[in-house]
C-alpha cells in the first residue's frame, strides 16, 4: 500500500519540478503537462482504491438493504473529486469565477443525488412514528 502512495507522490513531485522549469518559457506546455500528470495520478489512484471499494461494497451487500445508500455515497464522493479537479484546473487557468461555478454545480449535483435517500429515510421515520 505504501509503495503505491510513494509512486503517486513521486509522479506529482517530478511533474511539479518539470512544470516549474518549463512553464516560464512555454506556459501552454506547462499547463498540458500539469493536466497530463493530474490524469495519470487520478487513474493510478482509481486503480489503487477500486479493490477496496469492492470489498466495502460486498460488506454492505451482506448487511442487506443499505447497499443503495453505499451507491449514493460513492457517487457523491466521485462527484466531489471530479468537481474538485475541474475547479482546480479552472484556478490553474486563472479562472476563479468559473472554479466557483464548478464547485456550485458539484454541490447541486450532490444535493439532487441525496434527495431520494433523504425522502426514503423521512418516510421510514414517519411510518415508525405512526404518522
Structure description:
This protein is mostly helical. The chain folds into 2 domains: 1-50; 65-131. Helix content is 90%, strand content 0%. It has helices at residues 2-22, 27-63, 67-92, 96-129. Helix 1 (2-22) packs antiparallel against helix 2, helix 2 (27-63) packs antiparallel against helix 3 (67-92) and helix 3 packs antiparallel against helix 4 (96-129). The longest helix is centred in the middle third of the chain and has 37 residues, at 27-63. It is elongated and about 70 Å long. 3% of the residues are buried. The model has no long low-confidence stretch (mean pLDDT 86).
Shape from CA axes? elongated
**Mean of the pLDDT scores?**
86
Q: How far do the termini sit from each other?
A: 50 Å
Helical proportion?
over 70%
How many beta strands in the DSSP annotation?
Answer: 0
Radius of gyration equals: 20 Å
- Which secondary-structure class do the elements indicate? mainly alpha
The biggest beta sheet reads: none
N-to-C order of helices and strands: HHHH
**Could you list the spans in which at least 5 consecutive residues all have pLDDT below 50?**
none
Count of all domains: 2
Beta-strand proportion? under 5%
SS field, number of helical segments:
4
Topology of helices and strands:
Layout: H1 2-22, H2 27-63, H3 67-92, H4 96-129
